[in-house]
């Protein structure tokens, strides 16, 4: 009877783990499937971690995986490493500098690049920082807090255009501001202001403004002011993606 109960519990536990993994939106990879799968995508964000991860960092990664489920060119995946038994995936993890002493490690594999890019979690291991990291390094669209997708598209068009065309896009942006929800009105004014300043001072403005805002954020500020500047920084990134000429830039930005 005891053995029967243990068997049932083992099946139940395995089911819970499978459901949790499936619900996370990320894909489990191992040493056999790793390269076959990631080579199919423009970019792959991979977390190397213990076999059964938990905690705030894992929750942040799961949140990012869910948020990016509709981004077809981005794979979000996990490699679970065991330090017992057959030590599954241990050698694969070591190949990319991941060990039980530094789990979890997140690396971004971009098609055409020989080496993956390490996610620097010194600013925090959050879904927002992961999202920002992917956007900055690939150009793939992942919405950031405070950003408006329709206006992000216009920001991207603006940075690609010549001066005369920029004026047309600014007008298009002003028209769009009259139609966006009230909750996005404040953010909308920031998009418009950045375009106006860029027309006046040149494309270099977005880079200089980005540096200025980062400097302000490094000082002592109220939480409300930090949030306000954080949103401005996120919106500025929408203007900089193409300017940085990252390796993957989508036509539908």
TrEMBL record:
Position of the signal peptide: 1-22
InterPro entries xrefs: ERp29, ERp29_C, ERp29_C_sf, ERp29_N, Thioredoxin-like_sf
Keywords: Endoplasmic reticulum, Signal
SUPFAM superfamilies: ERP29 C domain-like, Thioredoxin-like
ERp29 N-terminal domain sequence ranges: 23-145
Endoplasmic reticulum resident protein 29 C-terminal domain location: 146-239
GO CC term, one of those recorded: endoplasmic reticulum lumen
Pfam families: ERp29, ERp29_N
Keyword tRNA processing listed: no
CDD domains: ERp29c
GO BP field: protein secretion
Stated name of the protein: Endoplasmic reticulum resident protein 29
Gene name for this UniProt entry: LOC106117637
């Amino acid at each position: 009877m005891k053995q029967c109960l243990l068997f049932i519990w083992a099946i139940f536990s395995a089911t819970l783990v499978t459901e949790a993994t499936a619900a996370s939106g990320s894909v489990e990879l191992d040493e056999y499937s790793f390269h076959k799968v990631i080579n199919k995508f423009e970019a792959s964000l991979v977390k190397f971690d213990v076999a059964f991860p938990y905690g705030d960092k894992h929750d942040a990664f799961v949140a990012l995986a869910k948020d990016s489920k509709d981004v077809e060119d981005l794979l979000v995946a996990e490699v679970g490493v065991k330090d017992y038994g057959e030590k599954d995936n241990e050698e694969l993890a070591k190949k990319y500098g991941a060990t039980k002493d530094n789990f979890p490690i997140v690396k971004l594999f971009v098609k055409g690049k020989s080496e993956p890019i390490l996610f620097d979690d010194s600013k925090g291991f959050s879904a927002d920082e992961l999202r920002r990291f992917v956007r900055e390094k690939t150009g793939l669209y992942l919405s950031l807090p405070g950003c408006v997708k329709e206006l992000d598209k216009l920001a991207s068009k603006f940075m690609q255009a010549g001066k005369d065309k920029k004026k047309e896009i600014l007008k298009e942006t002003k028209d769009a501001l009259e139609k966006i929800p009230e909750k996005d009105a404040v953010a909308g004014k920031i998009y418009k202001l950045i375009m106006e300043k860029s027309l006046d001072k040149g494309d270099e403005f977005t880079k200089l403004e980005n540096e200025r805002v980062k400097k302000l954020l490094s000082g002592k500020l109220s939480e409300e002011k930090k949030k306000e500047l954080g949103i401005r920084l996120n919106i500025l990134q929408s203007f900089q993606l193409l300017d940085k000429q990252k390796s993957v830039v989508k036509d539908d930005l």
